[in-house]
Amino acid sequence: MDRKKYRYRYRVTVLVIMIAAGIFFSMKAVSLIFYTSLLIECFGALIVDRPKG
């Protein structure tokens, strides 16, 4: 019985961590996508503007 309780607690803890990580990473992902698109635009402009040869 004690083991079952422990297992349940472990599962709940994992679930909470997963939810928290999901929220954190979704927020991070939004900023990451934003910064990545900015970087791509900057590098794209550099590559396009660079004279050939």
Q: What features would you describe in this structure?
A:
The chain has 53 residues and is mainly alpha-helical. It has one domain (1-53). 91% of the residues lie in helices and 0% in strands. The protein has one helix at residues 2-49. The protein is rod-shaped. The model has no long low-confidence stretch (mean pLDDT 84).
What is the gist of this entry?
With 53 residues, this protein is mainly alpha-helical. It is built from 1 helix and no strands.
Overall pLDDT metric = 84
Percent of residues in β-strands? under 5%
Q: Give me the secondary-structure category.
A: mainly alpha
Largest sheet: none
Helix content: over 70%
Per DSSP, the total helix count is 1
Query: Which H/E pattern describes the elements?
Result: H
Can you count the beta strands?
0
Number of domains: 1
Rg, Å, rounded: 22 Å
CA(first)-CA(last) distance: 75 Å
